[in-house]
Amino acid sequence: MTHLGEYYATRIYPGLSAALSWIASPFPFSLTEIVVVVLFVLAVLLIVRAIRRHRPWWRCVLGEIGLILIAVVWLYGAWGLNYFRSSIYERLETIPMPYEEGEFHAFLDHFAEELNENWCDMEILNKKRIEEEIKAWYSTQPAECGLCQPRAWQHPKRLLFNRLYSAVGVLGFIGPAFDEMHINHDVSNQEYPFIFAHEYSHVLGVSNEAEANFWAFEACRASQDQAVRYSGWYMLLNYTAGNIYSLLGEEAYKEWADKLIPEVYDDLEFTRLHWQSLRWAGLAKFQHRFYNLFLKTNRIADGTKNYGQVLRLVLTLSDLHEHEDGEEG
Asked: Cα–Cα distance between 71 and 65 in angstroms, integer?
């Protein structure tokens, strides 16, 4: 199945994605959201029609199953089959780097330095320039990475139900019906460059969330813009703080965290309070369980925990450890 998934991702999806996103490009709003709403309305109308005309219940069930099949075939055919492609380790013919304490601590020192040095006031953000720069970076990645080529007409779409996404903590997502990218309007400037690069990697054929975080981090780290670089390191901390804590233990983690400047902590606290103020606890809990199950049924065995596994990808595939060896030598 992996070979078929990779064939789809590299031979079929690039042209299909370019065509679908081009069809959707004249519309500033999300066509995927429209498709979901239309399918939901049709499902309700089928039930209402069956009741009014006193049709047998099984005919109504068949109609609902037909709608579900249409949705599944469309969404998986347009993007979802990317879940069945090979992993980034297989594509790049490498294996995850085993944990080495000395190298990990050297990385963490560099991590703290980059966070502190790249912090900056981010009241104003040039989103158009960020999009151009990140797309340009993705276009330079070698073919073995398995990414599609960026397209000029692929831009973030306006969300119709943004408040709902904020309530459940969704920062962005790909719309598989037309391969559209979406970024939550409530995302802060500190988060935006990384979220853009993360969601755009999905448009380019990445399905694994840890891999999407890896590409987002690398794209931001390569930027000439200090704010974009900071977003990369800042979001890497957001996704991996728990991993770092579990590896170091409480005392060592606190010792490392004390190296971060107060401004970084201010950003972290702002982000926490910002999303907490928008969260609907019950609905967010339900969404998390549903998405966790969805990922697990689509070959992401760790579910939502997959996001935090970006740290291993960074340590294995990034050139950071080589950079540090060069400095020490």
From this structure: 10
Residue 276 lies in a domain: yes
Nearest to 130 by CA among 176, 198, 184: 198
pTM of the complete model beyond 0.85 = yes
Q: Hey, what are 127's tokens?
A: 């989103």
Position 1: which residue type?
M
**What are the residue ranges of helices labelled H in 142-298?**
162-168, 192-203, 209-221, 226-248, 250-257, 262-278, 281-296
Pairing of strands 180-183, 172-175: antiparallel
Q: Is residue 245 included in any domain, yes or no? A: yes
Render pLDDT for 273-322 as a digit per residue (tens, 0 to 9). 999 999 988 888 887 787 777 767 766 666 555 565 888 899 889 876 54
Q: How far apart are CA 43 and CA 53, in angstroms?
A: 16
CA–CA dist 280, 177 (Å, integer)? 27
Domain count across the chain: 1
Residue 91 resides in a domain? no
Q: Is 25 helix (H, G, I), strand (E, B) or coil?
A: coil
309 Rama sector, left if φ>0, alpha if ψ -120 to 50, beta otherwise: alpha
d(CA 135, CA 200): 8
What is the Cα–Cα distance from 194 to 215, expressed in whole angstroms?
9
At 110, the amino acid letter reads H
C-alpha closest to that of 92 among 313, 322, 323, 309: 313
| Residue from 221, 166, 167, 164 nearest 194 by CA | 221
Is 213 inside any structural domain?
yes
Q: Which of 85, 212, 81, 209 is nearest to 138 (CA)?
A: 212
What angle, 0 to 180 degrees and rounded to 10, lies between the N-to-C axes of helices 310-317 and 209-221? Answer: 50
Identify whether the C-beta of residue 6 lies closer than 8 Å to the C-beta of residue 146: yes
Its domain, for residue 171, covers 99-328
**C-alpha Rg value of the chain to the nearest Å:** 21
Q: What is the pLDDT of residues 93-124, one digit of tens each?
A: 998 888 788 888 899 999 999 999 999 999 89
User: CA-CA distance, 181 to 163, in Å (whole number)?
Assistant: 17
